[in-house]
Amino acid sequence: MSDAFDVPRLEDLVAAFGGSLEGRRILVRTDFNVPLRDGVISDDLRIRAALPTLKWLQDQGATVAAASHLGRPKGVPDQAFSMDPVRDRLAELAPGVDLLENLRFNAGETANDAGFVAELVEGFDGYVNEAFGASHRSHASVVGPCLTLPSVAGRLVEKEVEILGAMRSKPKRPFVAVLGGSKVSDKIGVIEAMAETVDQLIVGGAMCFTFFKAMGHSVGKSLCEDEQIDTAKRLLDSGAPILLPSDVTALGPDGADVRQMGRSLPDGWTGFDIGPGSAAEFGDAVMDARMVFWNGPMGMFEDPRFAGGTRAIAQAMADTYAFTVVGGGDSAAAIAEFGLAADVDHVSTGGGASLELLENGDLPGLEALRAAAARLAR
Length: 378
Ligand code: ADP
Ligand code: MG
Hints:
Distance between the termini: 21 Å
Strand content: 15-25%
CATH superfamily of the largest domain: Phosphoglycerate kinase, N-terminal domain
Number of strands: 16
Bound molecules: adenosine-5'-diphosphate, magnesium ion
Largest sheet: 6 strands, parallel
CATH topology of the largest domain: Rossmann fold
Number of domains: 2
Strand order of the largest sheet: 10-9-8-14-15-16
Number of helices: 16
CATH class of the largest domain: Alpha Beta
């Protein structure tokens, strides 16, 4: 894969049609995978986030249809995952924009089936990818239309590529990555990629216990992935600038006793957060950085007894002069819950996609856009 962080943009679509989108029918792959509670949208941020692109296209005279997946239907129509609530909200926010039915009502979507791609693009003249959070998947609606239609990135995708691309190719130093969350196996690729570029790699969350075990500490009942211990050892031995917590907040065997401990936990105890000493130390590293990427909570922040570490990182992200980016669904939820989301420079709309872009320097959905642009240029 190439390491180019340029993608064709909306202006290139206008150029592809000789300077005007008047009367053109444009298919926009959006990420309208919104949270629903009893069939009611509890947060419409993802719909509002796509409005600049949708309205821009309409203002250029295009007829616009959006398409998205919602939840995880199993490749067949399922009323529980109907787009109806999204369609109603979209009609209020962007009148005139059509919305196709849930893409995952067809098994051809995740299978990237050529027949389903043909169905999707039928009747359209151009394609816009505005679903950054789906761009790491080679699904029909992400890569398929690029094979035949003039295809470009929408405003959200363009911004993600620009910001994450700059982090990867021209980081401001000191560049600090703060990685947490539950599983080393989910994040190992990005840990390894980051270890080569950052000045400091902070590892918190449940992931730190796999590293502790690799160092010979006892981890009690804490989440630990034994099959990742060798990888953790290799990383520790590689001389990568890894910073691990020096203290841990742990829950006792009775499920009520909460104590501060060092790196070794007694039998029956579970580490659910980094300790206050580590929270302060990690916070200082964020304050002293010029660029910070944060993915993954430092503890089980959903429980207020174990939210302290994550809150400290969120606060430092908000306070530091560094350029700050948050990626990851749970990390983004945490910083929003603390009321600090507006104080960081960028909250990525794609969890897995942002990690993969930092790791590989490219995504299937972005590659497909560039391939389409190259074809058009010939
Ligand atoms: P993100 O969505 O930001 O990428 P992850 O999905 O990797 O983050 O991880 C988030 C989850 O990790 C949260 O639900 C949190 O409760 C959990 N977690 C963090 N630290 C611990 C821990 N020490 N023990 C158990 N779960 C943890
Ligand atoms: Mg998550």
